[in-house]
Amino acid sequence: MFGVLIFIFLVQIAYVTISTIRLIVMMKGNAKLASMISFCEVFIYMLGLATVLQHMDAWYNLVVYCLGFAMGVYTGSMIEEKMAMGYVTVQVITRKEDSDLPGNLRKAGFGVTSWLGEGLSGERLVLLVLTKRRRQKELVDFVKGMDPQAFMISHEPKTFHGGFWVRRTR
User: Fold this and answer.
1) Whole-model pTM?
2) What is the spatial distance between Cα 62 and Cα 74, in angstroms, rounded to a whole number?
3) How confident is the model at residue 99 (pLDDT cuts 50, 70, 90)?
């Protein structure tokens, strides 16, 4: 009986974790890999569901099934965070028009486009930085270290084309 509970719990963790990864891979545009992952996902799902349906006589089997699902969501999220697939575009707005920030970011290996903008209370330096998602925290920490008051917004670009930085990020 205890073995069945552990099996249900672990199968649900595996199923939901794989489901999360498949969804992310699909959203990143890799349909072939997502299709292959979905085969494993459904196989594991059916194992768990069949086991729960065979043991419906005990309510705690269903509770363990639900707990495994919840833990799978958490595990999948943690794995996705570690995978950090794709790219981010971070827009940085600083009050320091004469800032060394663009040059320092370039020296640190980030692609930067900069221009002067007009804010509520004067001129601002606007930076557009493209980087791999796994370097986003490094970028944000770098900017905060140089200008703690900088305003930052990040976006995940779906597609991009051209520019020397595109060749460097692949």
Assistant:
1) 0.67
2) 19
3) confident
